[in-house]
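REQUEST ID: PR-0412
SUBMITTED BY: lab tech R.K.
PRIORITY: routine
TASK: structure prediction, single protein chain
INPUT:
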Amino acid sequence: MMVGAMLITGVDLFVNLITYPMHTVVQRMMMRSGEAVKYKSSSDALLQILINEGVRSLYKGASAQITICAVRNILAVIYLIILNKHRAGRSGQPTYSISIRWKNSEDGFKGDH
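STATUS: complete
OUTPUT:
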């Protein structure tokens, strides 16, 4: 379970870092919406940011996003550990089954379909 959680955390961090420049462009466009000089499009915003500030400016604030991602995934792992301990069977092994019972008209369901 720990290996799977680490893999999911790594993939989540990777995806967040890859898409963070798009988030930066969106935020910059929203910040400029009330000003006289606006970006013409998202590609214009990206180009202007790269020309005026460089590539590093696209990743300003990414450390906060990495922290958020790490905390979110740590909390998810803690939740899963607690959930598995709570659902542990008599043998002490965690159970992973989910049972879903559907009611139909033959079982007494009296609703519209």
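NOTES: The CA atoms of residues 77 and 106 lie 41 Å apart.
REVIEWED BY: pending
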